[in-house]
Amino acid sequence: MYEMKDEYLTGIEQIDNEHKVLFEIAEEIYQLCVNNFVPDKYDHITSLIQRLKDYAAMHFKNEEAYMESIQYKRMFTQKIQHDNFIRKLDTMDLEIVDENQAKTIEDLLKFVTDWMIEHIMETDKRIAE
């Protein structure tokens, strides 16, 4: 379901390669969401949240370094969006995650999907311009 398609390419190889991994993580979240054979998904959810947070932090650092190297004029706006992404993951209440696993997975999947559509398609593509 989640795969990197040409429409998401920025034309910047490093950024595109890192975005592919974000799509892979989104696919893992989706697979967990539709998997009805795992009754308790808490450990899987928290692991995916941590993996997403760690990977996104590394990706954002690389993306920001690239933007700085080309003196990208919208870098400050990008940095704020990146910080908000990490903050959202940091503020996920693990007690709520445990109490309502299905909703948490759905919310996480929506958050990541919206991010990829809005941020990659609207914001990251501008870097290559």
UniProtKB/TrEMBL annotation:
Keywords: Iron, Metal-binding. It holds the Pfam family Hemerythrin. Residues 10-127 form the Hemerythrin-like domain. CDD domains: Hemerythrin. InterPro entries: Hemerythrin, Hemerythrin-like, Hemerythrin-like_sf, Hemerythrin_metal-bd. One of its GO terms (molecular function) is metal ion binding. Belongs to the hemerythrin family. NCBIfam families: bact_hemeryth (NF033749), hemeryth_dom (TIGR02481). This is Hemerythrin.
